[in-house]
Amino acid sequence: MKASTLFTFAAAAGLASAQSLSTDCTNSLKGLLTSPDAACLNPSALLSFFVGNAKSVPDTVNNWLTGLCSTGFCSNETLATIVTNITTGCASDFNVAGGVPETVTQIVQEVYPTARSIACLKDVPTNQLCVSETLTSLETLVGKLSFSDLNVATAFGDFQKIVVGAQNLACTGCTKAAFRLASQLSLVTEFPQAQQQAALQIDAICGANFIG
C-alpha cells in the first residue's frame, strides 16, 4: 500500500482515536484550532470533526490539506512549542508526566518536512492532492467514509476489500513520489532492510521494479 495511503490512514485513525482522549488532552487539541503557533498546520479546517459534524473523511482531509499546503512550513521553534503544548495537556494519555523527551521534539522536527511534502503531493494528470485522491478511490472500494463511523471494527471489516483493490490504490505516480521522499528520512535509511522489503512488497503488487 502506498506511502500516501498509509499517511492517510494514520491521520484518520489519529482523529478517530481522539474521541477517547482525556478532557485535558481534548481541550489541548481544541486549543490548537485557534492558536497562532499552529496556523502553519491549518488545524481550524478540522473544526467540523471536533464539533461532531459528520462531514465525510475525503472532504474534511482535502479541505485541511488544501489550506495546509498553501501556507509556509512550520519552523522548528513552532514545532517545539506545539509538541510541548500537546504533550503537557495530554501527559496522562501519552504517559509523559516527567516531561517531553528532547528526542521526541527532534523526531517531529525531522519528520515534519517530509510528512508535509508527502501530504501535499499532487497527481499531475488530475491536479488533485494524492491523499484526497486515495481517499476518494478508497470510497469506491468500501463505501462512504465518515468520521462518525471510523473505528477499528469497520477498518478490519473493510480490509479484505482494500486488499482486493490494492493495485488501484497503490500503483500510481503518487506511490513512487511518496516512497522516494520517505526514503530520504534518516529514520528510514537507518533500516535499509525494512526499506528494501517495503519496496519489494509494492513491486509485488504493481510489477517488478515499479519503485525503480
Automatic annotation (TrEMBL):
A Pfam family hit = DUF7729
What UniProt keywords apply to this chain's record, in alphabetical order? Signal
Question: InterPro entries this protein is in?
Answer: DUF7729
Q: DUF7729 domain: which residues?
A: 20-211
Q: Does the keyword Nucleus apply?
A: no
Establish whether keyword DNA-binding is in the entry: no
Give the residue range of the signal peptide. 1-18
Can you say what this protein is called?
A: DUF7729 domain-containing protein
Taxonomy-wise, where does this protein's organism fall, top ranks first?
Eukaryota, Fungi, Dikarya, Basidiomycota, Agaricomycotina
